[in-house]
Amino acid sequence: MTDDAAADPGASTDQPYAAGFACLVGRPNAGKSTLTNALVGEKVAITSSKPQTTRHTIRGIVTSPTSQIVLVDTPGLHKPRTLLGERLNDLVRETLLDVDVVGFCLPADQRIGPGDQFIARELAELRQAKRTPVVALATKSDKVDRQRLAEHLIAIDQLGEWAEIVPCSATRGDQVDTVAAVLAKYLPPSPGPLYPDDVLTDEPEVVMIAELVREAALEGVRDELPHSLAVVVEEMVPRPDRPEGKPLMDVRVNVFVERSSQKAIIIGRGGSRLRDVGSTAREGIEKLLGQRVHLDLHVKIAKDWQRDPKQLQRLGF
User: pLDDT: is 130 or 306 the higher one?
Assistant: First the structure.
């Protein structure tokens, strides 16, 4: 691929069509979900200022005239402290074995630390076992000045062997097209796209609805909550006897926490917080489904669910 084509994933080229799977990894809160959304151009992964919010591998699909990247967004790799943490790490490792290229997110506004070194060692083993190319991505480049960014890029270079190193800012859109082009370079040839052009994700609607509720519930709450929050969509049924052209979907959702104190945080004084969660989530769900929604939220306690194998299974982990 020429430099011009690399700069523009939609540029015409004599190369055959390429399609395959790319995975973004990094420690919690490294900007993986935000970059997934920026690459796809739509919200398919939940984002939060709280680390460790992604629970499911969410695929975002980036289609251009010359390539299709199926992006698999994973939970952050971290040193697990619970059974849930161990399962999330296993999920990342399984995903890594099945992709064609890996993007390793290293946020520019944070020094490289033990968490990054832990992931770099895992990726070095992957390269030895599968020869999977790893592209290092200096995310959040808009948050630092040029001097700090240059120091960060040198530190990334010294951390391991990378196919390429690309600085980018998903929130500002800097170099997002370049990230797409670089990832596409390492995909295998394909007779055509793996998914239809208009498909942005292959996540089931119920999973995306649960994620939208979870994202709304995480906004502005204390640090202990993200790990303790699980969301299950109980049912989705069209409201009967609606006038033609004005459908309404009844969506019943259970939000599980581990302790009564956490339940009080989610509900808020006089139910005010839960109402805010509901209206924020409903807006996203209506956009997703393309119709009006009645959202029925219930907060329940599932004591110590992160450490209980039976409860983990019941909640979808």
Answer: 130
- Tokens for 47? 């984002």
Whether pTM > 0.85 for this model: the answer is no
Q: In this model, does residue 239 exceed pLDDT 90?
A: no
E strands in the chain: 18-25, 58-63, 67-73, 101-105, 134-138, 164-167, 230-238, 248-257, 292-301
pLDDT at 44: 58
Q: Which two tokens stand for residue 163?
A: 């196919």
User: What is the crossing angle of helices 272-289 and 260-267, to 10°?
Assistant: 70
Q: Which of 243, 35, 20 is nearest to 139 (CA)?
A: 35
Backbone angles phi, psi at 161, to 5 degrees: -100, 120
Rounded Cα distance between 254 and 268, Å, is: 16
* Residue 94: burial class (beta carbons within 10 Å; 0-12, 13-18, 19+): exposed
Do residues 102 and 161 make contact, with C-beta atoms less than 8 angstroms apart?
no
> What is the mean pLDDT of the segment spanning 74-82?
60
Average pLDDT over residues 198-208: 65
**Other residues' Cβ atoms within 10 Å of the Cβ of residue 97:** 11
